[in-house]
Design goal:
Blueprint: E1 14-15, H1 17-27, E2 34-37, E3 45-46, E4 50-51, E5 61-62, E6 66-69, H2 71-74, E7 83-91, E8 105-109, E9 121-124, E10 153-156, E11 166-167, E12 178-180, H3 188-196, E13 201-205, E14 209-215, E15 219-220, E16 231-232, H4 235-246, E17 249-256, H5 260-270, E18 276-280, H6 290-295, H7 298-301, E19 307-313, E20 315-316, E21 320-326, E22 331-336, H8 340-359, E23 368-373, E24 379-380, E25 386-394, E26 397-400, H9 409-413, E27 417-421, E28 427-428, E29 433-438
Parallel strand pairs: 1-19, 7-8, 14-17, 14-18, 15-16, 18-22, 20-25, 23-26
Antiparallel strand pairs: 2-13, 3-13, 4-12, 5-11, 6-8, 6-9, 7-10, 19-21, 21-22, 23-29, 24-28, 25-26, 25-27, 27-29
């Protein structure tokens, strides 16, 4: 990642959302690739194309439990005039030595078993008497329970076309095909494909390790008793969950008291397991804004290139923001405001893209669409600020949820989108087309 410190300007300068994000993404660089076992690579991003070394399936095999036969031997077969064939044995999945099916012969074959030499098609067991002479079978009896079914005769009641119920070699992917492209995020289906073509390890960018901590002496952990003037710490839980949702391995530190030295020591202790540090609270202009106090001059005593820049952004909610790098490895740090909605909106706009950039993804942003505003009255927005309102999006429309207050956690819990009101717009009438950031 870049060791360049963020640009700074005057204290009264209002940065735009786009400028702030641009600086963050210029500082963050994708993590170095590593080789991981398949299950450890889940959620990671491939750094190289994967080519198929062996065709899937690697041989012609049966898609049904039934009988492998020659087409001519079952032509014209019916319940009134069944074809009667000699059963020469069983062909099971994983069987190395295969029987040969000659004229007038059949082999019991199991799903996934190789099509034996001489056979041209597969007749499902339901089209036969299962070799038991009792009329149409409903299934194939286990060999241990009906050994006579694997020998003797089988009555076939329906004809079958050539290669019916046969999975052709290479019908899934062929040797030499590209299985997965570089940049693919490895989910369960991709892990399955890699295993199926024999890949036990894969080269990926690891999932970023994100350390989340909230600040404030008033914060109490859930399940503990609230004292006077105290509130439960929800931000560290929300942001840790959001980091995991973005693809990171997230560690929640919890609440740190309003003491600058304690915060500095806590952050320093966490750097050993952090590719990104996220704090929430303490970035405004109050007397107890401990993050700003603790980190404003961190670059003065750290290595060259480190430093945290605290800014005011032309946005609502989330005006106060901080970002930069810290420690000997110049670990990126994003300092978010403490109000719950402000911190979550800030995460979506700035932290999530940073996490996705660390993963090496090309598209780091949430999807954005336009939708028609449905509301009982016009939405108002402060001039010169880009406002992000919570909303619910469905069928091309978006409806505001709750008010504009940055403390309204309940409204946030019911939202699946952010309504974007541009800086030059002070009022949005119902029915207007608006930009929407989709959160789900």
């Amino acid at each position: 990642m870049s060791s360049a410190a963020p640009r700074t300007t005057g204290q009264d300068h209002l940065w735009s959302v786009d400028e702030h994000l641009e600086d963050i993404l210029a500082t963050v660089r994708p993590l170095e690739p590593i080789e991981l076992q398949l299950l450890d690579a889940q959620g990671c991003v491939l750094v190289e194309d994967v080519t198929v070394p062996v065709s899937l399936p690697p041989f012609d095999n049966s898609s049904m439990d039934g009988y492998a036969v020659r087409v001519a031997d079952v032509a014209g077969a019916s319940e009134e005039f069944p074809a009667v064939l000699d059963v020469v044995g069983d062909v099971a999945a994983g069987q190395a030595e295969l029987l040969h099916v000659g004229p007038g012969q059949a082999a019991r074959i199991m799903t996934g078993a190789p099509l034996p030499p001489g056979a041209e098609t597969v007749v499902p067991v339901e089209w036969t008497d299962g070799g038991l002479g009792e009329g149409p079978a409903t299934g194939m009896r286990a060999r241990a329970l009906a050994p006579e079914g694997a020998e003797g005769h089988v009555h076939v009641y329906r004809p079958a076309e050539a290669r019916a119920h046969v999975r052709a070699k290479g019908s899934d992917v062929k040797a030499g095909d590209r299985a997965l492209d570089a940049g693919t995020v490895l989910g369960p289906p991709q892990i399955a494909l890699l295993a199926a073509i024999g890949r036990g390890t894969v080269r990926v960018r690891p999932r970023p390790r994100v350390v989340v901590m909230s600040t404030g002496s008033e914060l109490v952990q859930p399940d503990e008793r609230l004292g006077d003037g105290q509130i439960y710490d929800s931000n560290s839980f929300a942001l840790t969950a959001a980091a995991r949702d973005a693809g990171a391995i997230a560690y929640r530190v919890g609440a740190v008291a309003d003491d600058a030295e304690t915060l500095r020591n806590t952050i320093e202790d966490q750097l050993v397991r952090a590719d990104l540090v996220v704090t929430t609270g303490g970035v405004s202009v109050g007397a107890y804004d401990v993050v700003k106090e603790a980190l404003s001059h961190v670059g003065d005593e750290d290595e060259a290139g480190s430093g945290i820049d605290f800014r005011k952004l032309a946005m609502q909610p989330g005006k106060p923001q901080g970002f930069g790098s810290i420690g000997p490895d110049h670990t990126p740090l994003l300092a978010l405001p403490g109000n719950p909605v402000s911190s979550y909106v800030s995460f979506e706009l700035f932290v999530r893209p940073a996490i996705r950039a660390l993963m090496g993804l090309e598209d780091v942003h949430r999807p954005r669409v336009t939708a028609k505003l449905t509301a009982g009255k016009a939405l108002t927005s402060p001039k010169g600020r880009r406002q992000f309102l919570r909303g619910t999006h469905a069928d091309g429309t978006v409806t505001p949820v709750g008010g504009a207050g940055s403390h309204l956690v309940a409204a946030l819990a019911h939202a699946d989108a952010l309504i974007v009101v541009p800086e030059d717009v002070e009022s949005v009438e119902p029915g207007t087309e608006v930009e929407v950031v989709l959160l789900g």
